[in-house]
Amino acid sequence: MAFALAVAYCVIVSIRIGLTLPNVWHLRRHETVVPPELAGSVDLTTLQKSSRYTQDRARFGVVTALGSAAAVLVFLFGGGLALYDAWVRELATGFVLHGVVFFVGLTLLGAVLELPLSAYSTFRIEARHGFNRTTPGLFLSDWLKSTLLGAVIVALLSAGGLALVRAAPETWWFFAWIGFTAFGIFMMYIAPYVIEPLFFKMTPLGAEELRADVERLAARCGVRVAQVLEMDASRRSSHSNAYFTGLGRVKRVVLFDTLLERMTREEVLAVLAHELGHWKLKHVTKSLLLSAALSLAGLYLAHALLGFEALPGLVGLDEASFPARTLIVGFVFSLVGFPLTPLFALRSRAHEWQADRFASELTSRPQDLGTALVKLARDNLSNLHPHPLYAAFYYSHPPMIERVRRLLPHGVPREA
């Protein structure tokens, strides 16, 4: 059974790589063809830069996927899990403490293994293509903060979940679902105030006219803007974005300083109108409800599978502790859930189309969102020629050129 599960995992990794390679080949065949709708807005030099960036990211992704797969196979099927589980048993006694050490240890190990990959991505690939602005000191500081924060969160969640397992062996899955869901909502609320300031400096937007326009635009959707903030994203990268945070009708608007540098006032408002569309159309609420429903089903199934006597045999073990069993169940869930990837991507793209339409109707200027998307794609060196199959499987947003064709059927103005 362990061999079959390992083979299934290898097949999934092969599919992932098999989707990436045609995407790169498709781009190479079209890297000298500027889409006619973008003539005058994207030149051949920019298109070729985009092609090189996409290919570099793809090659790095393939190498990372192969390395990750090798590590997973060795750890789960090569005896690593058994050794680690035995080591933690000697280190920490007690059901809850053993589990906390088990999961926090894996979190720290994963962070350490990912550090050189993240450093290469930042200081080689991103720097090579002109995106990186972070320093080694800032990079290391961010890594330490995120690693410690992740370890604390994992410790809290694992301690709470394992305490519920011990206190209510038959119904823990339901109470854990309530606790995890509540914790997730709580984090959505406090993250903008507690976590984001650990990494970014937020200052009130100095452009008073733009701030007033943002507040008026949001008010038309029934949203009250508590703050309009500018984020110093340029300290780390030249990539740009904007987003809303907060629950209910009271929101904070966060604008990357890189976005403000490149967009006109009308384009910034169009991007925010798109984000308002997600809220007005209840996309966020629907996603939260779907996530909660899937979590409930997953925890119930986990409860059933964790008691399965032959569960350790799925990875070639004779026995395993409760935390190790949880890890095995999570691995099985990841395999079963992989075929659902294109369905979730399809749903997300449908929401993006709806938000585009909402923004166009709210501002009555679809051309502003269209030119903003072109600038975002051009400045971020996005792939303008994704393979249709790759985009259908993975893209959470429709390909930029398709969005622009709907928003600007007569092409992009040359001044964009």
Low-pLDDT stretches are: none
| Beta-strand proportion | 5-15%
- Average predicted confidence as pLDDT: 91
Name the shape in a single word.
Answer: globular
Q: CATH fold name of the domain at 200-262, please? A: Zincin-like
Number of separate strands? 4
Q: Which CATH architecture of the domain at 200-262?
A: 2-Layer Sandwich
CATH class of the domain at 200-262: Alpha Beta
Note the main attributes of this structure.
mainly alpha; Zincin-like; globular
Can you give me a brief rundown of this structure?
With about 425 residues, this protein is mainly alpha-helical. It is about 70% helix and about 5% strand.
Explain this structure:
- The chain has a domain at 200-262: 2-Layer Sandwich (Zincin-like).
- The protein contains 15 helices and 4 strands.
- The chain has helices at 2-30, 44-77, 80-91, 95-128, 136-167, 172-199, 208-219, 257-262, 265-280, 283-306, 322-337, 341-363, 366-379, 388-394, 400-407; strands at residues 202-204, 224-231, 242-245, 250-256.
- The chain has a 4-stranded mixed β-sheet, sandwiched between helices.
- Helix 4 packs antiparallel against helix 5 (136-167), helix 6 (172-199) crosses helix 10 and helix 13 runs antiparallel to helix 15 (400-407).
- The protein starts with a helix and ends in a 9-residue tail after the last helix.
Give the helix/strand layout.
Layout: H1 2-30, H2 44-77, H3 80-91, H4 95-128, H5 136-167, H6 172-199, E1 202-204, H7 208-219, E2 224-231, E3 242-245, E4 250-256, H8 257-262, H9 265-280, H10 283-306, H11 322-337, H12 341-363, H13 366-379, H14 388-394, H15 400-407
Parallel strand pairs: 2-4
Antiparallel strand pairs: 1-2, 3-4
Helix pairs in contact: 1-2, 1-14, 2-4, 4-5, 5-6, 6-10, 7-9, 9-12, 9-13, 10-11, 12-13, 13-15
